[in-house]
Amino acid sequence: MSPLSLLLLALASVPSPPGVAPKPVPPPGVHALPPSETPSLTADGSLAAPPVPLEEGDATEEVEAESAELEELRALEGAALDPESKPNAEMMQSLRRLGLTNPLRLRMLDALEEPTFREDTTPPALARITDLATFDISQVKDRFDIPVDMQPRVAEYIQFFQGPGRKWFRKWMSRSTRYLPVMQPILESKGLPRDTVYLAMIESGFSAHAYSWAHASGPWQFISSTGKQYGLKQDFWVDERRDPIKATHAAAAYLKDLHGELGHWYLAWAGYNTGSYRVRKMVQRYGTNDWWLLAEEKGLAKETKHYVPKLIAAALVAKNPAAFGFSEEEFQYESALDYDEVKLTDATDLDVLARSAGVSVQDVQDLNPELKRWCTPPATAAKPYVLRLPRGTSPRFAENFQKLSPADRLTFRVHTVKRGDTLSQIAQQYGTAPEAILQMNRLKSARTLKLRAELVIPVPSGRGGGAVASGALASKVAQARRNGVVAMRPEDEVPAGTPKGPVAAGPVKTEKVNGRTRVTYGVQEGDSLWLIANRFQVSVDDMKKWNNLPRRNRTLSLGTLLTVWPSEPAGSGPAKVEERGGTIVVASTVASQAPVGPKGKVHTLAVGETLWSVAQRYNVSVEDIMKWNRIKDHRTVPTGKLLSLSAP
User: Fold this and answer.
1) Of the candidate ranges 65-79, 213-227, 446-460, 547-561, the one whose mean pLDDT is the lowest
2) Using CB atoms within 10 A as the burial measure, which of 227, 351, 365, 639 is most buried?
3) Three-class DSSP category at 562
4) What is the tens place of the pLDDT at every residue in 231-251?
């Protein structure tokens, strides 16, 4: 006879008090079943589940469905680990069939002394750890599904989080409650340990908008190329590296590949930081896959050597904050990421979406951190864009969004900035407002637009009433002004492509100082110190001394202002300084150096000179110089060539 049958017989043989019919007593809040619904044995000896009243059926089925798999797993695990002290799997399956609220099931559990199946299985709180040197990590290893070892570097990171890094760790912990509930199931579904999530903690502190010096972005800190390799879209509209859901799927796939290649989670984590190739080479070079030995050798960056112990330390403290000296009052836990999804078939202004859902634009942006613009990307009915909205707001959104008139909608264009563009000109071209352009592109001001930059241009759906008449556009302008965004006056705008800083070319000012001539000269394209020194018959060393230039300075920036003290020939008085074609020259020197040619205008091409710089100097065009000297390719003119600077 099976153990279950023996137990049932034992329960049935318990005598009842005199005059009282045997009747199971349910715990408080649990109703006893009528005699007609008492469980019975099936043909194979197991217990048949009692019929469920119709009015309670749905709720009971839902609870059973959510609990059955986990309970059976625990039963099988218990039987496998300690068959003698735990009831076998067959018995626990029979118990499960009784239902969670069946009084007979509860009595059987009491008899089997299995409170585990009714009580919280959370491990007891870890005692306060005051000495890391004597801390026995084996007492917490079973609380993690990733390998954890206590090494000196791990202890150092724990102390760092307790001390100098405490304010950052508080923020990480406060933010973790928003992302752990959504990230860990994704990791588990991909076959990764759930505690791998702490890699995102040390990478970004669970920040969707973290951006590193290496141009890595998002909570899992993907660089652009790796993100694209694992399916994260990055374009004008979105950067999916910043999306906590999509990026976690990509990180899980990447880490799984790294683990498959390198064979151990420590090596996979290190590979995530520095690349699998470097870690694999280290394993081959030193003939070991023991991370702690590899970390002592040369060949890995300091950041990579610290990466594994930092992750272990973060996991230890995050799962046992009180044991490591943190109090609950230090954390301001964020609510779990929870949302509805709606499908959009066109690019839509975030402000319009937020008003339709009855939430703030910030709420929409927080749930959709991948969005780079103040609107969603272009979409179609066949390929809609899936937008997240706060939980419970999708019905209101659907109702209000459908009622929007064309005047309350905006369409969008993409404009690539060209040389000479200004914000006011672009706004006029599209029939929109400068403030709206600034707001849509998250710009505070645009005195100067960057060449080849792409701008989202909000355009009213109905152009008949004019740009200002559009309700959506007027709302966008008002929103921009509330955020401190104000367009500049057109006369104060600088056309795109205008060089920054001084744009002087050639002489700026000539003056007498203590009887000597001083020239302020603006560097032109093609100029060099050697060329400028030769024009004024001075030495390069003097030029450097007058302008406090380093001895090895080899380049000059366009428009830089230089001070020049032209030389004066002995015995002939000060040389006459003249301006010719936008360049200051010493008249006597030019006259003595310039070979006499047709109409007296010739020039010997010096080292570093170009036809363009010569043309600027003599106020002629490059095309004319090429024509007068029968030059076909301006790039092949040799140094020392005598150039005619006037028509023959």
Assistant:
1) 65-79
2) 227
3) strand
4) 999 999 999 999 999 999 999
> Cβ distance 264 to 293 under 8 Å?
no
Locate 430 and state its tokens. 């599209």
Phi, psi of 562 (to 5 degrees): -115, 145
Cα separation of 390 and 361, whole Å? 11
When divided into structural domains, the chain yields a total of 5
pLDDT for 49: 41
CA-to-CA distance for 100 and 109, rounded, in angstroms? 11
DSSP state of 196: G
Q: How far apart are CA 627 and CA 593, in angstroms?
A: 24
- Report the C-alpha gap between 593 and 580 in whole angstroms: 15
What are the residues facing 27 on neighbouring strands? none
CB 601 within 8 A of CB 570: no
DSSP state, residue 638: P
For residues 142-152, give the mean pLDDT.
94
- Lookup result for tokens 């023991």: 290
- As beta bridge partners, residue 341 has 388
In sequence order, which residues have a C-beta less than 8 Å from that of residue 280 and are 6 or more positions away?
261, 262, 271
**Residue in the block written with tokens 């004008």:** 236
- Are 204 and 220 in contact by the 8 Å Cβ rule? The answer is yes
Q: What is the CATH number of the domain that holds 608?
A: 3.10.350.10
On the 0-12 / 13-18 / 19+ scale of CB atoms within 10 A, 634 is middle
Between the two ends of the chain, the Cα-to-Cα distance in Å is 124
Same domain assignment for residues 139 and 260:
yes
Given a contact cutoff of 8 angstroms between Cβ atoms, the answer to whether 602 and 594 are in contact is: yes
Among the listed residues 192, 130, 151, the one whose alpha carbon sits nearest the alpha carbon of residue 313: 151
**CA–CA dist 554, 528 (Å, integer):** 8
> Is there a domain that residue 1 lies in?
no
Question: Do residues 362 and 387 lie in contact, with contact meaning Cβ atoms separated by under 8 Å?
Answer: no
Question: How far is it, in rounded angstroms, from Cα 634 to Cα 53?
Answer: 96
Q: At what angle do helices 244-262 and 166-189 cross, to 10 degrees?
A: 80
Q: What is the pLDDT of residue 219?
A: 96
Residue 431 is part of which domain span? 412-462+471-492
Query: What letter does residue 162 receive in the DSSP assignment?
Result: H
